[in-house]
Each structure stands twice: as structure tokens, then as C-alpha cells.
Amino acid sequence: MGLFTHFLLIDCPQELHCAPNGSYPAFEVRFTADGEIPFPQVILRAPGTQTLLNGDAIQFSQTASGEWTYVAAVPAGTIDGHRISVQIEGCRQAAIAHAQGADWIKHDRDVNLIRPQRVKAEARVAVAGGAEVKLYFGIHKHMHQPYYNTTDRNYWDGEKDGIFGSRGGNYTDFIPNAVQQYNDGQLPHAGLSTSWSGSLIEQLDRCGDEGFCGGRFSGWNNALRRMGGLKTELGNPRVAFSAFGFFHPLMPLIPAQDIVRQIAWHRDVIKRAFGIEASRVLFPPETAFHVRMIPALIEAGVTAVIYDSIHRFRACRDYPYAGLGEGMLPPNAAEQTNPPVDDWVQLQNIWAGSKISPRLLRPEYVGYEDPDGKLHTIIAVPAERYIGNEDARGGFGALQYADVLGQVYDRIVETGSYDPAHPPFFLLHSDGDNHGGGADSYYGHNTGRLVEWLQQDSRFELTTTEDYLQRFPPDPNQVVHIEPGSWAGADNGDPQFMKWFSRYDQPYSPDLNSWAVLTAFQNAVHTLETSAADHPELAEAIRLLLTAETSCYWYWTGQQVWDQQVTNAANLGLRLIKPALDALIAAGHDRLGPTIFAPWVTPENPGGKRWGQGCLLDASPQGVAHTFVADVCGLKRVDLVLRTAAGEQRLTMHNHGPYPCETGAAVTADYLTAELPIGAGDARYYIEAEDGRGNVSRGALERIWLA
Fold it and tell me: Which of 122, 270, 287, 356 makes a 20 to 30 Å CA pair with 52?
């Protein structure tokens, strides 16, 4: 017989039993062909590794009938995961240089690895029916660097080189090293989620290409890409690259279409950088969440969103407000729509400014009702504020996991609040490149101790969010409300996002200036996109707009280099599109309504409490709603539509003209206010604006209690 045309028989073990240390025994792969195979080879694939056997590694012989038998001896080894994929192939073309794809004959087999069962510590408590009481938790690490110059993405200096260079391990192999320990420790559902901004990824690519930071980032993402093959027992990635906003925008304060685009751009860069799809679970920048984001998140394909746990606690009736130590004003009564709970506990041996409720530490559906009365829902996953903060200091040594998580566990047992169908689950989240939670020791020694603890204590299980939601999906018929807010590091993450409204009560606020400029820039770009989406300068203007939405440019208020960034991007973007925009307006082709900035109310709790000097004072009952509105064709009217128990009424908003600017902005939005009726109680409202051409826009439905 001549060259082979097909395989007659393939003999490969279906399973192998591993030793206690996880190693698998040597085995053989035998295959018989109807003729001689010029280039036989066997490829073994497992998470993070690939082995090629060919040449002298494959023995062969010919039978009397002319068939050829090949034997590949696979040595013993240790790999990640529970399966080895075996590809047996041969080329029918003797002149391999002339071989085409069709000349290669390939067959696949899987070898399942049977690992010894790990003996778990006995559970301390079981509920009726024998279900073991278990507390589930996850870990999230956030990675970000902004562009330090919005108008020059190639800007680089010694300071930036030092900032990036000091984070070499964080941006390369720290996460893979930690996750490898989960895998080697045979924790079936363990992994971590991590959020990487697009601006960081782009700059790391440039570091690698141009040799910045002493060449530290050449192939920076190789180890992270290899992690894509590591799966949990349910087949989900052990490293989940969370959905995110490309330029790290504060999502509650930007338009819905920009939320969608930021997430879409980010999804693309994650696939390119790491070779894996971004998760459908969103980590919002700054952990900043507001229910008005939900429709945009759904449109962007997000199925679950992470939020700071305190904002769920504070949305309960009878919430035990902790006073000044909590770092926030008392909750607004309009936010407290969820039933009371009775399992509040004050955590010990860590800093905790207020009590937490263990029964509320689990994913739930959260809802937003729009002005038309339509309910939009999404799964919300809590990141526990106080335990996460302590973990961010460096894990074991800062946070005694068994002791602190044990307090949560014990309170669940005490109160009988355990639900086997929806057990407790929360994330411990922190920056992955700052302070203790970003240190090499956190990902190394701390993780090793964490794994050892979990192997011995079956009360707790480390799991990915995706595995948890697959095993314990929340009930879509149980929809709750969550107060707005962000993480504790942003002035305690208050519901008004005042970290990004610094000096709002002064005649001039750099933060308000940037929001006003951004609102006008958003309207200009969106107007041109609506009518001339193929304009050659539009793509760069859109990128400048999304860059200008970076939350960092508000976070560091009072530093001119940051206060100026939004204006610089807006001015450059407007120069690019001004001729086309002017022509569009002159031709009467503007089809977009005004851009309305998310409103805020002062005092934050009308008739409630406000901040004093080291104390809480009574707040005026007179509430005032504030916003920015912009349109390239000018504003005809702006109304605040108020809904109370007495019915619906329209309040004409007072236009104070363009917000004062000290950064030389080419355009800025108008600043508008409206006084809200005293004593109206639980109220809902939205803003409606009409431009000079009759185009109308509506904002989101907001809530406020007017005492």
C-alpha cells in the first residue's frame, strides 16, 4: 500500500487516575493507518500547555497486510484541569512544503483525569433536610491607569515610566500565580474576577512595543492569556475578565449610549489582549452604581452588576444608621423601599463603620422603573464593603478570614436565615495594583494560606461569580431596590457621588465645570453621529469624548493638570467636527434632542440632616434640583416633571445661562435649577427638555423624599 488516506483505528485511554499530588501516569496513544504516514504527530493540549510528539517520539511498524501502526509514548506529568485533549494527525502529502489544509487528516480524543476526592472538614451546621450551611465568597482585582493627557495618547515621561514600572508583576504574572494556586489546591469553583481598563491595556501594549519601563512589559499578557484555558468544575474561566468601561467612566453620570459604547469597546480589547471573551458580569468603575444604568447595561449585554454592599443595607426600612462614623448622611427615605431585616451584626476585629446584614449578602434582582412605568431588572452582586476593605490591606495578617467570615457565618446560623437555594455570596474587591491588596505577598503567600484554610474548613467556599450564579440563580420574581453610591474610597461612596461634585456649594467648582463642558461636548458629538455617522472626523471625536469621561479627571479635584483634561479633549474634538456640525445646523438637519446631565438635589435630604463641622445639622426643607442641559440648536424649554401622591405637575426650570468656566472651554452647558415643593413626601421626577428645532429629550426617573 502507498501513502495513507485515513486512520483505521485509534486507541487512547478514556480516563486516567491521578496520584494524590495531581500527577497522571504515563500512557500510550496507538493508531493504525491504511498506509504509511509521512508526518505522523500527536498534540496534547491542557490548560496553559501544549505538547507535540513527532519524529523519534513516535514508533512505527508495518503489518503483513500493509497497514501501519504507530505508538506515541506519553510520559507521566502534572497539568491543570481535569482533561487532556489529544489530537492525532498525519499528512497525506510526502512533500510537506506543498501540503494544503485538506492534506492533513486529524482526529481528536479526550482523556479525563480522575483526581482523588479531597476530604472536607465536617460542616458545623446543617439545616432542615440536611443541607450544609455554607458561605460563598469571591475575589475581585481592579487594574487601571488613565491617559495622563486626553489629547495626546502617546504622551510619556519619567513619572509615567516609574508608575507603570513599579507595577510590573501586577500587570503580568501576579494574577496567574494566585489562580494557579487555586487550581493546584483542587478548589473546584475557585477563581477570581478582574477588571482591566482599555486605557491601561493600550498603554501596556505600547510599553511592550517600545520598550518602556526597561522592557518589563514585553509579552506582558502572555501569562494572563494562558490562564484562559483554566476552567472551574462548571467550565467557566478561573480568571474572569469583567465587563467594564473602556476609559473608566463614572457610569451613573454619563448618557446611556456612551455606557453601551464604553462596554462594547472594552469587550473588544479584552478579546484581543487576553484571547477570551469578557464576562457578562460588570464591575462598574469606582463600583459606582445607580439603578438608572440598568437599561443601558441590558442593551450592552450585561447580565449582572457588582455594587458596594452598604447601599443595599441602607435601602432597607429601619436601617440602623450609625451616625458620623458611617461617613454618609442618613439614607433618603425615598430609597428605603425594601422590607426590614433583623440579622444586623457589628463586625469585630476589623474596621466597620456600621452594621451589616448577612442575609442580604447574596445576588438579587434589582429594578429600575422608567418614566413610562416600565420595569427593567438585572442581577446585582454585592461586594462587601468592610471585609473587602480589610482584605485590600493584604489578606492574612490584615484580615483573619476564618474569624471575620466566621462572624457572618455564625450570625446566619443564629438567625436561621440560611436559604440553600440562595446561600450567601459576596465579593472581596480592591485595586489589584495598589497597597497591600496589590502586593506580591497578597497574590503569593496570602493566597497559599487562603487555599490551605479552605481545604480544611468546609463552612466556606471560594467561587467565581459565574459558577455561583449557575449553581444558585436568584429569583427573578423577587426584585429589590439599591441606593445609589460607590466604594468607600470615594468619600465613603455617598449616594450623591459627591466625590465627583467637589466644591459644588461654592461659586465655582472645577468638577461642575468639567461636567458642564462634557455635557455640551456629548451633545455636539451625538448630534453629528445621529445625522452623519460616516463623517471622517467623527471617529476621533468619539474617542476624545469617551476619553474625557474618565472618572479620574474628577477624582483629583483642585489639580490643574486634571481639572483641565475634559476641556482639552472637548476643545480638540469640537475643532474636528465644527465645520460639519455648523453645516448640519444650517441645513436644519439636527434630529437629536438636548443632552440632560443626571440631576442632583441640595440639600441631599431636604428636611432631614446635612453636614456640619464634626456633626449633623438639620437640613432646610426646601429642596433644589440642579442639572446641566445642552443643545447645539439652543434650548426652548426645560421642565421638571414631578410625581407625588397629589399627582403630576410640571415645574419650569430656571436657566442661569452657561456654567462659569475657568478652563477656556469652547462650549459649556447651561446650568438650570428648580425648587421642589416642601412636604411632598415620597416623590419621583424626571427632566424634559426641548431644543430650538422641537426635538425633545427625557432624563431618567429619579426619586427623592421631600419632608
Answer: 270
Kind of pairing, strands 670-675 and 58-62? unpaired
- Helix ranges, 67-226 (H): 158-165, 174-184, 198-210, 222-226
- The rounded distance, in Å, linking the Cα atoms of 333 and 315 is 8
Residue among 189, 702, 208, 72 at smallest CA distance from 472:
189
What whole-number distance in Å separates Cα of residue 410 and Cα of residue 455? 20
- Phi and psi based region of residue 389 (left: phi greater than 0; alpha: psi -120 to 50; beta: remaining): alpha
pLDDT at 120: 43
Task: Tell me the pLDDT tens digit for each residue of 201-213.
Answer: 999 999 999 999 9
Q: What is the mean pLDDT of the chain?
A: 93
**What pLDDT sits at residue 78?**
79
* Residues 6+ away with beta carbon under 8 Å from 572: 151, 544
The DSSP secondary structure of 108-147, one letter per residue, reads EEEEEEEPPPPPPPPPS-B-TTSPBP-EEEEEEEEE----
Whether residue 542 contacts residue 524, with contact meaning beta carbons closer than 8 Å, is answered with: no
More confident site: 396 or 284: 284
Which residues, in sequence order, are CB contacts of 205 under 8 Å at separation 6+? 273
User: What single-letter amino acid sits at 103?
Assistant: D
Alpha helix segments (H runs only) across 587-691:
none
Q: Which pTM value belongs to this model?
A: 0.83
pLDDT at 558: 87
49 has pLDDT over 90 = no
Taking the alpha carbons of 182, 183, 186, 191 in that order, is the dihedral positive or negative? positive
| Residue labelled with grid coordinates 475634559 | 566
Instruction: Give dist(CA 124, CA 132) in Å, integer.
Output: 8
* Residues 83, 93: Cα–Cα separation, whole Å: 32
Overall size of the chain counted in residues: 707
Longest C-alpha distance within the chain, in Å? 101
**Are the CB atoms for 585 and 632 separated by under 8 Å?**
yes
Q: How far apart are CA 626 and CA 599, in angstroms?
A: 5
How far apart are alpha carbons 527 and 592 in whole angstroms?
6
Nearest to 125 by CA among 418, 425, 462: 418
Q: How far is CA 615 from CA 189, 203, 321, 485, 622, in A?
A: 46, 45, 14, 22, 21
> DSSP letter at 619?
P
Query: CA-based angle 98:101:105, to the nearest 5?
Result: 105
**What's residue 398's pLDDT?**
81
**H or E stretch at 546:** helix 538-548
Give the residue from 558, 368, 641, 584 showing the smallest Cα distance to 482: 368
Please state whether beta strands 364-369 and 624-630 pair in parallel, antiparallel, or not at all (unpaired): unpaired
How far, in Å, CA of 633 to CA of 691, rounded? 6
What pLDDT is recorded for position 124? 54
Q: How far is CA 90 from the centre of its chain?
A: 44
What confidence category does residue 566 fall into, taking pLDDT thresholds of 50, 70 and 90?
very high
User: Which of 54-63, 150-159, 163-172, 238-247 has the least mean pLDDT?
Assistant: 54-63
Query: What 3-state DSSP class applies to 259?
Result: helix
Q: What is the mean predicted confidence (pLDDT) over 255-262?
A: 98
Q: Which three cell numbers stand for residue 128?
A: 432542615
CA angle 700, 263, 172 (to 5 degrees): 140
**How far is residue 651's CA from residue 667's CA, in Å, rounded to a whole number?**
27
pLDDT in tens, 549-563: 999 999 988 899 999
pLDDT in tens, 80-108: 666 788 989 888 777 655 666 667 888 88
